[in-house]
Design goal:
CATH topology: Spore Coat Polysaccharide Biosynthesis Protein SpsA, Chain A
CATH class: Alpha Beta
Largest sheet: 11 strands, mixed
Number of helices: 9
Helix content: 25-40%
Shape: globular
Strand content: 15-25%
CATH architecture: Alpha-Beta Complex
Number of domains: 1
Length: 258
C-alpha cells in the first residue's frame, strides 16, 4: 500500500483538533503519515497533538512547531508540512474539518483505475455537528485547468495528488487563496482531476478567514495577476468572470443535505 502524507496546520485549534485527527486515524487506507504544523498557537494545540500521538500508534504523526513565526499564515504553515512529507500521495485536512473513513481508499483506488494523478470530491458543510450537515457541495466528474481557472471548484479538504508522479507543489505565502493557487499548478501538470461524486469530507462553517468573502477579492485578483502572471487587462477580465462563475454557476452545485 502507498504511503499518504496528510498536511494539517493548527492555530488555536484545541476545540476541534481531536475530531479532525480521529477522522484521519480512522481511514481505511494505510499507511498514513500525519504531519501537524502548529503556527504559534496560544492554546494547547501542539501539546495535545503530541499527547494524541502517544495514544494512537496506528499512524505516524510528525510535529512541526513554528513558535518563532507566530501566526505566519496558512501558506507558510502548509509549505512546511509539504516539505516534510515523504508519502507517495499528499493530501490536506485543516484542524477543524473532517474526513469520511473511506475517503483516501476511494480516491486512491479511483486514481489507479483511470489512471489519474489528481483527485477531489464532493463534501458536506456543517455548522455544529458533522452528522447533521446543512449543505452538500457537488463536483464534476472531471475537472480541467480551464474550469478551475474560472473559480475554485476543488475543495482543499478533498484534494489529493500523486507526488511521486507529479512532484511536490508549494503555495504562495498568502493568508488566503494560497490553496487555489497550488491546485492550479497541480492540475496544469496533471492535466485533469477525477471527481468523486459521493461526499468524502465535512467542512465546518466558521466566522474565520474563509467566511469573509469580500476580503478575498484582492487575493482572487492575485491568482491571475501575481501567481499566473497574466496582464492587468486579462487579470481584470478573469476576476469579473470569477464573480459570474462564483454566484451563478458554482452556487448551483450546493444543495440541501439529505
Amino acid at each position: 500500500m502507498s504511503l499518504v502524507s496528510i498536511i494539517t496546520p493548527t492555530y488555536n485549534s484545541i476545540t476541534t483538533l481531536k475530531e479532525s485527527l480521529d477522522s484521519m486515524v480512522a481511514q481505511t487506507h494505510r499507511p498514513l503519515e500525519i504531519i501537524t504544523i502548529d503556527d504559534g498557537s496560544a492554546d494547547d494545540s501542539y501539546a495535545f497533538a503530541k499527547a494524541y500521538a502517544l495514544k494512537n500508534t496506528s499512524a505516524e504523526i510528525t510535529f512541526i512547531n513554528l513558535k518563532n513565526n507566530f501566526n505566519s499564515g496558512a501558506g507558510i504553515t502548509r509549505n512546511k508540512g509539504i516539505e516534510a512529507a515523504t508519502g507517495t500521495y499528499i493530501a490536506f485536512l485543516d484542524a477543524d474539518d473532517l474526513w469520511k473513513p473511506h475517503k483516501l481508499e476511494v480516491q486512491i483506488n479511483t486514481m489507479k483505475k483511470h489512471p489519474a494523478s489528481l483527485c477531489y470530491g464532493a463534501y458536506e458543510i456543517f455548522s455544529t455537528a458533522s452528522h447533521q450537515p446543512e449543505l452538500t457541495h457537488h463536483v464534476s466528474k472531471k475537472l480541467s485547468f480551464e474550469e478551475l481557472l474560472k473559480a475554485n471548484y476543488l475543495g482543499h479538504l478533498t484534494g489529493i495528488y500523486n507526488a511521486k508522479v507529479l512532484g511536490k507543489f508549494y503555495m504562495p505565502a498568502w493568508r488566503k487563496r494560497q490553496d487555489w493557487a497550488m491546485w492550479l499548478d497541480v492540475i496544469q501538470k496533471a492535466e485533469f482531476a477525477i471527481g468523486i461524486q459521493e461526499p468524502l469530507a465535512s467542512y465546518r462553517l466558521s466566522k474565520g478567514l474563509s467566511s469573509n468573502k469580500l476580503g478575498l477579492i484582492k487575493y482572487n485578483y492575485a491568482i491571475y495577476k501575481t501567481h499566473l502572471k497574466y496582464s492587468t487587462l486579462k487579470s481584470s477580465w478573469m476576476l469579473l468572470r470569477f464573480f459570474y462563475e462564483q454566484f451563478f454557476v458554482k452556487s448551483k452545485m450546493l444543495t440541501k443535505a439529505v
